[in-house]
Amino acid sequence: MSDVSIYCPYCHRYTSLTVAPTIVDYAGRHLEANVVYTDPRNDSEWWIGICNSCKEAVLVHSRNGYSPRISPDPLPSPTDERIPDPMKSDLVEAKMCFAAHAFRGCAMMARRAVQSTCIDKGANKNNQLVTQLEELRSKGVITQELASWGHSVRWIGNDAAHPDSSKVEEKDADDILKLAEEFLRVIYVTPQIAKEQAGKRGPARQDGRKNEKK
Question: Alpha-carbon distance 71 to 186, whole Å?
Fold first, then answer.
């Protein structure tokens, strides 16, 4: 059993889970143990997890190579408030889809978040995403690396949207959800952090050269 941490569906905090203690009455004795039920047929484990913050219980199904399944569904990770709408709403919906194991929906909404960002940053809204990414790259709005992240999201998002394409597995959805969020963070959050820090130092130091110590 590996360590599991979640955004608790009860207290809304990010916390690790502890295996619930179980009292067993056997031959007149009370034995206390942490019980994990294993299924050797598919190398999986079932156990009751206790939130280390609020002490509420969830059911955990762990299986090697897959993210643990939690019931009730844990909350998705919070989305930075500095990401504007509709990009933020698209990303939040992608996270909700992933939390509900709707991996195709997650991939499609992650793709939409990236395309919404391209349009917000000046790409022609009538073009396809592949063209929009290259348009922003050629104008210097995004780097080649950011464009490659966007294309990875686009490929899996396309698979999710077309019935004759590859199935979107949990790992695929998890990967492009992370890529899409980092894409938005680099474009919206990082510049805002830099702007906020520069504002704390006043106009005399905002260009990074004035008043520097020799």
Answer: 33
**Number of other CB atoms surrounding residue 71 within 10 Å:** 10
Separation of alpha carbons 117 and 183, rounded Å: 9
Distances (CA, A) of 158 to 120, 154, 189: 21, 6, 26
For residues 107 and 166, is the Cβ–Cβ distance under 8 A?
no
Enclosing H/E stretch for 157: helix 144-161
What is the structure's pLDDT at 25?
Answer: 55
Q: Is residue 80 helix, strand or coil?
A: coil
What would you report as the CA-atom Rg of the chain, rounded to the nearest whole angstrom? 23
Domain annotation for the chain: domains and CATH numbers:
5-71 (no CATH), 87-199 (1.20.120)
Our CA angle for 109, 59, 100, nearest 5°, is: 10
Token pair belonging to 10: 């009860």
Q: What is the band of 176 on the pLDDT scale with cuts at 50, 70, 90?
A: very high
Residue 195: pLDDT over 50: yes
